[in-house]
Design brief:
The chain is mainly beta. The chain is built from two helices and 18 strands. Helix 2 links the parallel strand 6 (180-183) and strand 7. It is flat and about 80 Å long.
């Protein structure tokens, strides 16, 4: 795949102890999302996961095709040995492709067809419940949407049900972003953090803080908080809450065209260039009941 190793081959080495051409061998690959395992004659000699090629992109969670050929030369363009003899022949006894057992957890929802003609039907995710029938090995870890392997439709069984099922389109509808979000921890990022709230809240929305964060400090470790839309950040429910750049990064950047209303926060520990240490305002900033202190710009205070 492109971009994974600069065009070089990627794999492991297995020593047969003799020429590989002396006998037939069984080569196999077990290919799963985020992991590939290589076998020869039943021996697992190499595994690979995204961590093995990081920071390059893992490109193997997509369909691929198989090529079997006699490669002549070195590693993708290496020189052909002087003692190489031609012609050469590759003997392949068989090629088989197996599908792993389907262990995906099943969830279901239903609706009543009480109309004629085409009709839009909306099935919110919260209406789905775990199906009574599950394949062997299916997990029981809730209705997560990070990996969805397929979907299907069927008519009810039994009774006087008859007819056919016609579908025109199946779509995912985006839920409008929330207009109010409460920050519940002092983490730099991730669920419940201020950084995530800024990313998720609707334009014109309001971000507040759980009272349990009173007197706490949000220490930034992955760069400044960038605001690119109109929003309000109100710290009045958690008095004394501090946002710190940890003396390594600027705390806030207001991007052009954005209006930020910031209330009842302490902005400190920011480090920036000559244009700003704590807050760099390229848009519109309304700051109230807040303290901006202990921030530094390059070359001075």
């Amino acid at each position: 795949g492109p971009g994974y190793s600069g065009g070089d081959s990627f794999g492991g080495v297995y020593d047969f102890g003799e020429g590989v051409f002396n006998d037939y061998h069984t080569f196999a690959i077990e290919w799963e999302p985020d992991e590939i395992r290589w076998f020869v004659d039943g021996i697992n000699y190499h595994n690979a996961t995204p961590a093995d090629i990081a920071p390059n992109e893992w490109v193997f969670n997509h369909p691929f095709f198989l090529i079997m050929n006699v490669a002549i030369g070195g590693n993708f363009g290496g020189p052909v040995g002087e003692d190489t003899t031609f012609p050469q022949t590759l003997h392949v006894d068989y090629v088989r492709v197996y599908q792993a057992p389907d262990t995906a957890e099943r969830f279901e929802a239903s609706f009543t067809d009480s109309f004629s003609g085409w009709q839009k039907v909306v099935l919110p995710f919260e209406t789905f419940t775990r199906s009574a029938e599950q394949p062997a090995g299916a997990p029981d870890d809730g209705f997560g949407l990070s990996e969805v392997w397929g979907y299907g439709f069927k008519l009810p069984e039994g009774g006087t049900t008859s007819g056919s099922l016609l579908l025109d389109q199946v779509r995912l509808e985006l839920i409008p972003p929330p207009t109010e979000i409460t920050v519940v921890n002092t983490n730099d990022s991730g669920d419940g953090s201020l950084r995530q709230a800024i990313a998720d809240v609707a334009s014109g929305g309001t971000i507040t803080f759980d009272p349990g964060l009173t007197g706490g400090t949000i220490t930034l470790t992955s760069g400044p908080l960038a605001i690119g839309k109109d929003l309000t950040i109100d710290g009045s429910a958690a008095p004394g809450l501090t946002i710190s750049g940890n003396n390594t990064t600027r705390v806030l950047i207001i991007n052009p065209g954005a209006t930020a209303n910031i209330n009842a926060l302490v902005i400190t520990g920011g480090l920036g260039n000559a244009q700003a240490g704590g807050i760099r305002n390229n848009g519109t900033l309304n700051l109230s009941n807040s303290t901006v202190t202990g921030n530094t710009v390059a070359g001075g205070a």
